[in-house]
Q: What sequence folds into this?
């Protein structure tokens, strides 16, 4: 079992930055794919970014170049650096994990709210 706890959300102005953290406990995430999803009000949850166990990263087109994802294996933590934030980035952001996964993530955090004001 892996437990995930997100932090770093909040209210920021258009064009600002935030860094989300996802701290994992229970097991080392060295062989896990870690991902960030978001869900805006009234919309489906969508994948924002993921970092595979190999270190390969993938991004949604809407955030590519703005939201780099990274992992610190020593701290068992994954980060999402969100730059040039836009009001349409407003959502609840959730961290997810799966062993050598591509799209199967059995472990989820509670989520953290990100609100971007115009």
A:
């Amino acid at each position: 079992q892996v437990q995930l706890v997100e932090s770093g959300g909040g209210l920021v102005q258009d064009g600002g930055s935030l860094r989300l953290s996802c701290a994992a406990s229970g097991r080392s995430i060295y062989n896990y794919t870690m991902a960030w999803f978001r869900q805006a009000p009234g919309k489906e949850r969508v994948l924002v970014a993921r970092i595979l166990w190999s270190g390969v990263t993938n991004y949604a087109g809407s955030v590519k170049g703005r939201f780099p994802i990274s992992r610190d294996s020593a701290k068992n933590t994954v980060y999402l650096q969100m730059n040039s934030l836009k009001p349409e980035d407003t959502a609840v952001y959730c961290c997810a994990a799966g062993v050598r996964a591509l799209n199967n993530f059995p472990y989820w955090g509670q989520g953290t709210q990100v609100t971007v004001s115009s």
In short: The mean pLDDT is 96.
